[in-house]
Structures are given as structure tokens and as C-alpha cells.
Design goal:
The protein is of the alpha/beta class. The chain has four helices and eight strands.
Length: 165
């Protein structure tokens, strides 16, 4: 992991992002949260997203309650997939019902990857937003000890960007 003074940028190809947003919207069906892990490979100054795995594909019961409740068996499946495909978790993304992409107290207290520097992305309106932009996303970097920094405010380092390729 890069030092906190030089955070690594996560690069997501635009078509992959558009497909992910469409899939999150469909999985939630306008009624429940959905989510995914963004997988890829790290290079010296960036990580490139090459794939994603939906929470409910890894853990079939992760979305049963309407909110996200990801279980240990899902992580075992995730780690096996990453090992088999030489990938690592670069970030996670999940949806919220309302118009704001703010972290809930549950989000703050339960990071999907409780590792300093991990990035969590939140999409409002159950991902019923533009598939071609990060403009409505809330982007948060885990600082450790249940503390987060919002990374799409002025003055914060850019952590995620979309690319054409």
C-alpha cells in the first residue's frame, strides 16, 4: 500500500464502470442495496480495475435483508477467485437508497476491507444514476480505527478516476 502522503489512484475503464453501475442497478431492482469488489493489479502509482465481483455472487445471502450483510464464506470465495486470477481487491462499491452518497454509521463501523488506504465508493438512488461519471459517487478512504476521509471534496487527493481504456 502506498504511503498516506502519496495515495495510489484507482483507474477504472469507463466501459467497465458503466457495466458495473448497470449491474448494481439491476441487482438492487430499486428496492435494496447491492455491491461489488473492484479487482485488479497495482502498479507503482496506480491500480487498474480489471474485473469486479458482485457481493451476492460471492455470498448468495449478502443482500437478503435489503441491506448488505457480507459473510465470511463470501470472503473465502473472493480470495480464491483473486488467487486463481492473480488479482487483488482495489476498492469496493455499494449503493444506498437516498439521494446522498454519504456513509452511514454502519458503513463507518464496518469497512469491507479494514485496511488503511482501502477505498469505498457509495452510489445513491440504488445506482439509478449516470453510468458515465463518478459525479454522484461518494468516495471514501479508510484511515484506520474506524476513521474515513472523503476523497471527492476540494483539497483531498484524487483516489479514483475513470479512463477511456
Amino acid at each position: 500500500m502506498e504511503s498516506p502522503n502519496c495515495p495510489q489512484i484507482i483507474v477504472i475503464p469507463l466501459l467497465r464502470w458503466a457495466g458495473l453501475v448497470r449491474t448494481l442497478r439491476a441487482r438492487g431492482a430499486g428496492k435494496r442495496e447491492s455491491g461489488a469488489f473492484l479487482l485488479g493489479r497495482r502498479k507503482p502509482h496506480h491500480g487498474r480495475v480489471l474485473d469486479y465481483r458482485m457481493y451476492d455472487d460471492l455470498d448468495p445471502h449478502a443482500l437478503d435483508s435489503g441491506a448488505i450483510d457480507f459473510h465470511a464464506a463470501g470472503f473465502s470465495t473472493l480470495w480464491a477467485y483473486c488467487r486463481a486470477n492473480d488479482l487483488e481487491v482495489l476498492a469496493d462499491v455499494h449503493t444506498h437508497p437516498g439521494g446522498a452518497a454519504r456513509q452511514s454509521e454502519i458503513d463507518r463501523r464496518n469497512p469491507m476491507m479494514p485496511i488503511r488506504g482501502h477505498v469505498a465508493i457509495i452510489l445513491p438512488h440504488f445506482a439509478n444514476i449516470s453510468r458515465w461519471s463518478l459525479g454522484r459517487a461518494g468516495i471514501y478512504e479508510y484511515q484506520g480505527n474506524y476513521q474515513w476521509q472523503q476523497c471527492n471534496n476540494d483539497g483531498c487527493p484524487q483516489r479514483v478516476k475513470l479512463s477511456l481504456w
